[in-house]
């Protein structure tokens, strides 16, 4: 399990796949989810394999999630805020909606 | 000079054209060497749009329209031969293609071109339908209100062209072709036993020589008595992140690759030699794409690149054996993907036999000799 280097009592509340999580304020979505033990952020586009953050610095695009209904957001580059709704992704992003056209 | 190697056939150029010819030659029993250039050579084979396109091609040139149509019909055989030889599936899809019109004038133009090709080709011409907005939408619910209509033809398709290049190269290796990268040829000297090829890598002699060096053919052809006049044509492509399948067909300017990325293209600059992409052109491409499929506005662009088409003055391919240096052939074309099937299955066996058939005569560069204006 990851340990936080930031000593902060300030938290925000986010939702991940319907579950309410209290996470440290000011950290990235990726760090927040990892700190809560989430290790499955999405499934890969071609092979459907589970994926989690790898580089944590905006380069590898492994940590993609849907944030407030916007797909393919880089969770390592996005700061958490109170009320954020995060969803894991299955395969490729959908054009227009969550259902294929 | 005592120890220069002697080859039966050398293909200069290892792109889609050179590789498809070389594979055809080796299948015809000709021991073949491919001399490829440097990694940073202008490689249309790594920049193309991957269409197998027939619709509207060959306006005023029915031989070219028929040749493109024949290539599309031959494609399933090439794809299955590649799969059988290499195990690589090039994702051939021939479900038809659209030319989307964003104005009535555009729709009229696509319609006129398709109708003219049909008239000039006559019986067996590529089919096409002119669809209004509603008919287009019935086939493609994702199109936007700005699409006034389209021309649709079942003749069109696409492949994964990078995988095609890899499959051809794998096939070359498996069939014993001697492929050499970093072998730019700078000088060709005809002699009584064929041709002496020279580069910084050294020299070799070959009895048969095929020029398939893309834009470099212009420079090499005169060394063997051939003439390959090309025009400059820079194209630019945008690629999106991978998306779930939404566009099962293909189109002249937009296609979804088998692995999900959306390719947006079809720009043409005739006065730029710059390798960089031009942001103003990217903006125009993106804007047209969003008007065709509005949902693309939400999708991230992850790549863009530019490439140079290998385009003759009239857009048709050039196939010719040199009259002054028999044994030297040139194969050059803009449509290395579309015509790959014909190059392997038709042109290469003719080169192996030493003579191009009369039905390739319309593609001789002799056509440029009359009323040359530059």
Write the layout of secondary structure elements.
The complex is a heterodimer of chains A (101) and B (374).
Chain A: E1 11-16, E2 19-24, H1 29-35, E3 42-43, E4 50-51, E5 64-67, E6 70-74, E7 85-87, E8 89-90
Parallel strand pairs in A: 1-7, 3-8
Antiparallel strand pairs in A: 1-2, 3-4, 5-6, 5-7
Chain B: E1 5-12, H1 16-27, E2 32-35, E3 51-52, H2 62-86, E4 97-101, H3 104-121, E5 129-132, H4 133-139, E6 149-153, E7 157-158, H5 161-174, E8 178-180, E9 187-191, E10 194-199, E11 202-211, H6 217-220, E12 230-231, E13 234-240, E14 250-251, E15 254-256, E16 262-264, H7 279-292, E17 301-308, E18 311-312, E19 318-321, E20 328-332, H8 340-353
Parallel strand pairs in B: 1-2, 1-11, 2-8, 4-14, 11-20
Antiparallel strand pairs in B: 3-7, 4-6, 5-6, 9-10, 10-11, 12-18, 13-16, 13-17, 15-16, 19-20
Helix pairs in contact in B: 1-5, 1-8, 2-5, 2-8
Please tell me about this protein's structure:
The complex is a heterodimer of chains A (101) and B (374). Helices cover 7% and strands 30% of the residues of chain A. In chain A, strand 3 (42-43) and strand 4 (50-51) form a beta hairpin. Chain A has a 5-stranded mixed β-sheet, covered by helices on one side. A 3-stranded mixed β-sheet of chain A has the order 4-3-8, with no helix packed on it. Chain A is mainly beta and 101 residues long. Chain A is built from 1 helix and 8 strands. The longest helix of chain A has 7 residues, at 29-35. Chain B is α/β, with parallel strands linked by helices and 374 residues long. In chain B, 29% of the residues lie in helices and 24% in strands. In chain B, strand 19 (318-321) and strand 20 form a beta hairpin. The longest helix of chain B is centred in the first third of the chain and has 25 residues, at 62-86. Chain B is globular, with a radius of gyration of 21 Å.
